[in-house]
Structures are given as C-alpha cells and as structure tokens.
C-alpha cells in the first residue's frame, strides 16, 4: 500500500457525505450549470477529487470543501460546454421529467408538499406572482404590465412570497 | 471587472439566488454572485434551495394544470356520455305507459258489472277497482305531462338551450310546453272508456 493510498479519505466518509448532502449538491450544480446532465458530470468529477484529496479537508468543513470543489468543476465544465439561455425551461424539465426513484430524486416529496402548503397560504396576489414568474416564466416587466402594477410592486410581492416559501421550507418538521 | 463580494444577509442571499436561477440578474450582478459562490457556503446553499423551490413550484403548477385539463376533458366527456340516457328515458316512458294501459284495462274496471250501484254510473262506481271519468281524465293529463317532460329531457340532453325554450326559471313548463301537452291526442281506449253510457242496461 502506497503513502498516497494511505492518505486517501475513507470511502465510508464520502458515502455519508453523499447521503447527507448529495441531493443538495446536485441542486446547487444544476443552479450553476442549468443542465442536469452537466451537473451529474460535475458531481462525478468532484467525487473523484474528494477521493483523491478529501483527506486534506477538515471534518467540520468537508461539506463546504465538497461544494467548493464541485463548483470549480462546474465552472470548468461550463467553460467547455456552451449552455443555452433558456434557464428556467431546463430547470423545469428536470423537475418534471426526473422520475427517478425516491432516494435518487433531486426533488423530495416532503419538499413538494411543504411548498404546496406554503403556496396555499400565500395571499392571492403573491400566489399569482409566483405562478407567473416561475411557472409561466414571465419577466417582472411583463408581469407588471399584465397586472397593471408598478415594477417595484411586482418585485416586492415576489420577494415577500419567496420569503414565506423559504421560511416554510426551512422550518423544522 | 468583478466587484469585491459583499456580505449579504440570508434574505438577500435567497433573493439573489432566486434571481440568479431564474436568469433575472444582470450580467455583472450574476458575475458578482458567482464570485460569492467561490467562498460563501451559505450562498451555495441558498442557490441549491432556490433550485429546489423553483422545481417544486414548477411541478406543483404543472400538476395543477394537468388536473384542470383532465377535469375539463371529463366534463366534456360526461356531456357526450349523457346521450345514452335518451333511450333509457324513452324505455322508462314506454314501460310506464304499458303499466298504465294494463292497470286501466283490468277486467271489470270499465266493463259494467252487476255489482254496480243501482242506477249509478258503472265507471263511476267506486268499488275499489273502477275509476270515474274525472279520475281517468286526470290520469291521462298527468301521463301526457310526463310524456312531454320525458321528451324535454331528451331534448335537453342534446341541446341545453332547450331548457330556456320549455322551462321557466323555476323549472315550470312554459306555455309552449303546455301546448305540447294539449297536442298529445288522447288514446282511443280512453275515449271509449269515457264515452261509455251511464246506464249499463242501455247497452244491452
């Protein structure tokens, strides 16, 4: 056994890291790359780096280390690949077509349920804003024109709605 | 040129991450955020959360849209599916008419019997089996109304506008519909029963 092998991180640690943060890391990479396949590639590359150099990361910062390495890998991939402009369409496609088994799915059922509940509790004007911006993919300018409200009002409604949705997602079960 | 990354609070990070995910940031603002992503773990987590929320909302709205589309198709399908009710309605009417006919033609109902009241009308004799002419006429009127209503039901199945043509706001028959009732010709068997002579002995 070489010194290099001895220095490598315990595979069980990587397994545990993936179990705890794999889905979140994948979502992060989708956010950066706007493409689930590229995000998968970046994740693979990051895991290789983790195996090779993960032992250099302190235990308390392993998650941050993994995210940082994955981000760098994502930027490398992005430089190599031309990514299109229709960001929301690809992210939406990920949500709809990824019918992976529950443990592999990027989107967890309980998250969907929480967001659904949060959406139901939103005031109608905020709910409309969320739908128009995220699902219908309209710009705030277009939304403001259609609803005949100032652009600032549209932005503040969306921000308020986002705050409520985020609070619902992060509150303990 | 990128500006030095600023310290952002959680709400700001969430908002900027959402804007970044939905491609709502200017080029320079997006570059600033990407610079923040290099060193700020909370910004990375905010981005992951923004992606998660965007996907969840998209899925929920998509499912809601598909549900609405299915409900709409179901409603249209049910409308077409109601056509089968028309023959059933007519079969029911026919069965009721047959039953009425059989009941009215039971032996001894209209035929004068020796047990009739002396000097009384044989049909009018209320011996438990007979009907007087008033009752018979009333029966016919109600049956004919039923027939017209059944016809209206059939028309309604094919044309909702028929409701307005035949029924008032309270569901009562319009005058035109009542005219339809009058148009129904009384059957010969009923006319025969009504025109029986009042004295049974006069027939002999």
Summarize the structure.
The complex is a heterodimer of chains A (173) and B (204). Chain A is mainly alpha-helical and 173 residues long.
What can you tell me about this protein's structure?
- The complex is a heterodimer of chains A (173) and B (204).
- Chain A is mainly α.
- The model of chain A is unreliable at 99-104 (pLDDT under 50).
- Chain A has 9 helices and no strands.
- Chain A has 2 domains: 3-80; 108-170, Orthogonal Bundle (Arc Repressor Mutant, subunit A).
- In chain A, 75% of the residues lie in helices and 0% in strands.
- In chain A, helix 3 (36-53) packs across helix 4, helix 6 (109-121) crosses helix 9 and helix 7 (124-135) crosses helix 9 (151-170).
- With 204 residues, chain B is an all-alpha fold.
- Chain B folds into 2 domains: 10-79; 105-203, no CATH class.
- Chain B is 67% helix and 0% strand.
- Chain B is built from 9 helices and no strands.
- Chain B has helices at 10-21, 27-39, 41-81, 85-104, 133-158, 162-166, 175-183, 188-194, 200-203.
- In chain B, helix 2 crosses helix 3 and helix 5 (133-158) crosses helix 7.
- The longest helix of chain B is centred in the N-terminal third of the chain and has 41 residues, at 41-81.
- Residues 113-129 and 157-167 of chain B have low confidence and may be disordered.
- Classes of the chains: A mainly alpha (173), B mainly alpha (204).
């Amino acid at each position: 056994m070489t010194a290099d092998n001895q220095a490598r991180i315990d595979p069980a640690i990587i397994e545990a890291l993936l179990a705890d943060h794999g889905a979140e890391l994948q979502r992060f990479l989708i956010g950066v790359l706007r493409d689930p396949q590229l995000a998968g590639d970046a994740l693979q590359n990051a895991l290789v780096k983790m195996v090779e150099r993960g032992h250099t990361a302190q235990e308390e910062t392993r998650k941050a280390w993994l995210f940082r390495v994955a981000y760098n890998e994502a930027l490398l991939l992005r430089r190599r690949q031309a990514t299109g402009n229709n960001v929301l369409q690809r992210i939406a496609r990920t949500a709809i077509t990824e019918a992976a088994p529950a443990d592999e799915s990027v989107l967890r059922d309980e998250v969907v349920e929480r967001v659904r509940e949060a959406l139901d509790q939103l005031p109608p004007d905020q709910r409309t804003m969320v739908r128009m911006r995220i699902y219908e993919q309209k710009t705030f300018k277009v939304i403001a024109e259609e609803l005949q409200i100032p652009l600032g009002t549209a932005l503040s409604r969306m921000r308020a709605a986002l705050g409520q949705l985020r609070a619902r997602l992060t509150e303990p079960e | 040129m990128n500006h030095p990354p600023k310290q952002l609070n959680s709400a700001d990070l969430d908002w900027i991450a959402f804007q970044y995910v939905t491609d709502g940031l200017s080029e320079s603002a997006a570059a600033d955020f990407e610079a923040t992503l290099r060193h700020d773990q909370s910004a990375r987590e905010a981005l992951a959360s923004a992606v998660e929320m965007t996907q969840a909302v998209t899925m929920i709205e998509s499912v809601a849209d598909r549900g609405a589309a299915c409900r709409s198709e179901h409603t249209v399908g049910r409308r077409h599916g109601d056509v089968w009710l028309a023959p059933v309605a007519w079969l029911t009417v026919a069965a009721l008419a047959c039953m009425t006919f059989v009941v009215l033609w039971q032996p001894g109902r209209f035929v004068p019997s020796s047990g009739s009241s002396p000097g009384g009308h044989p049909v009018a004799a209320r011996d438990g089996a007979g009907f007087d002419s008033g009752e018979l006429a009333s029966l016919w009127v109600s049956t004919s109304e039923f027939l017209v209503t059944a016809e209206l039901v059939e028309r309604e199945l094919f044309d909702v506008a028929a409701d307005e043509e035949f029924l008032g706001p309270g569901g009562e028959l319009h005058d035109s519909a009542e005219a339809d009732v009058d148009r129904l010709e009384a059957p010969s068997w009923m006319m025969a029963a009504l025109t029986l002579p009042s004295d049974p002995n006069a027939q002999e």
